[in-house]
Amino acid sequence: MSAAVIVVAGGLAGWTDALTHPGFGAWQTVSVAIVVQALPFLLFGTMLAGAINAFVPAQALAKALPARPALAVPVAGAAGVVLPGCECASVPVAGSLIRRGVTSAAALTFLLAAPAVNPIVLAATAVAFPGRPEMMWARLLASLGASVGMGWLWLRFGREEWLRLPSRTSGHHAGRSRWEEFRQSFQHDLLHAGGFLVVGALAAATFNVLVPRSVLDTFSASPWMSVLFLALLAIVLSICSEADAFVAASLTGFSPTARLAFMVVGPMVDLKLIALQAGTFGRAFALRFSAATLVMALLSSALIGWWLL
Prior knowledge:
This protein has about 300 residues and is mainly alpha-helical. It has one domain. Helices cover about 80% and strands about 0% of the residues. The radius of gyration is 21 Å and the shape is globular.
């Protein structure tokens, strides 16, 4: 009996040491910071999605875009320039747009463009890189090019059966208050997407704590490896698009093109965004779409970086 007590006490002591270790404290801080940083934008996105679902007529959204899907894609990308949003907000909005009859290629283009090229993000980029306006323009062009390119790519090769939207009806129902529909839609999307946001934040925090800083110095010496490494870093860190420019600006050991790739890839492909897409559209879609988006974002960053930077 005494031996069992000693073993249990030793195990509890080990757990206590682990919970008080500085690394665990850093993991807690990073995971909570990601959730707290993203939650306001997730709230905004789910509220906007609920408002679209309850108050906007089903035909209005489709009529706002050109009838031809190939033209609707760049228009949807340009809409991201004037509509502030974050990657956490863009996923539920895109899901609501598709449910309301907007072509999926246009909705997915908006999903990628809105968090990457909106005025808040561009202003933050200009502030983060003072005296270097070419970084802001490079981010705008590379992000918009990747978004529109992915929209056209989905239009050509995408399959609607890959999209698994939540099985609930949308739009106004006779005999039900529009405010009640807004409340139900907002509550459903927030709870559904919020859980996946937490999963992505925990994964990003784990990587952030385990990878040593010395790895950064190893990869910065190679131009191409630095681009790939910062793209991977953007995926796992899952930093909100309104803040990632300041992180990119601090990575002074890397080339401007590598830092551009960090800012272009992050708002389009990161762990929390992949998790949100999997929860909203299905895992099969999220894996295919994220992989293709990563390639498109890297190509666009390399091309614009070679041209402007």
